Amino acid sequence: MKAKFIIPLILFLVLVGFLAVGLNRDPHEVPSPLINKSAPAFELPQLADPKQSFTPASMKGQVWILNVWASWCVACREEHPILVELSKAHVAPIIGLDYKDKRDEAMALLASQGSPYLLAVSDANGRVGIDYGVYGVPETYVIDKNGIIRFKQIGPVTMELLNQKIYPLISELNKS
Amino acid sequence: MKRFLLILLVLFSAAGTLNKAFGEEATPLADDPVVEQRLISISEEMRCLVCQNESLAGSRSDLANDLRQEIRTLIKEGKSDEQIRTFMVERYGDFVLYRPPVKPITWLLWIGPFLILLLGIAGLLIYLRRRNNEMVRTDLSAKDNQQIDALLKANEKESSHD
Predict the structure, then answer these.
(1) Which residues of B touch A (CB under 8 A)?
(2) pTM for the full model?
(3) Global ipTM
């Protein structure tokens, strides 16, 4: 009657397996439905010069990065030096989407910490953020030459993520 | 003491009339109750992405506020409930819906419990059949029957003595 002990043991191990996988997942990482879809169009005033506007269409033909940030966002400060590092690597231009922020505070932050952005635009009422499915700032999108979102990071970009995912992805997208 | 109570009474009633004088009727939060009703029925079925255990209708997070406002605008634009749901799913994924849609990736989720039930029933049937087979039928001999009768009788006598 070994089965009497083996069957519950197997059931228990299966349960432990499911829990081990399930509990190690981050429930805040929701798979984005925008992956492999066109980056939503928008037209927003530039942070540095609100008279000038920016549209994602102007980035066609190059791989670029859209980074959603705000001066009130604590995790963004943590991420900031890594973005500066990324911008120094000159692999892809970074556009900053300043999400629901005050212009002067955002400008002050960029002035004191250095700006990793080719340019930043301000999404004062967060309407563009909704189109991009933003729910936890910072968020980072890698967009290919045809304007298609290839990767989305929710939460701060880390050095590890840059090396393991973002750099390889950008060089792969640049080849095509 | 009586005078004290009287003063208290006068004070309270004065406060009451004051309240009436200065109190204002609460203004409704939204201008259109029909829109608001639809907003509630849609957003109750949606998850707030910032505080995931709350519905979009109940959450007080900033994003939930914005999204409710967005839904309000969509309702006023004459969009159907289905179109609004699609709008949300296109941006935030099926995760915003409390009722996951039936599609290949969610088949296991929908059918899983019934599969487990079927497995359980099958297991039970197999177990019962096996137990039935294991039980050996023993035929009693005439001598066994006599012995049983004797024991039963003895037992009956004993209990009638009590």
Answers:
(1) 49-50, 52, 62-63, 66-67, 70, 89-95
(2) 0.71
(3) 0.78
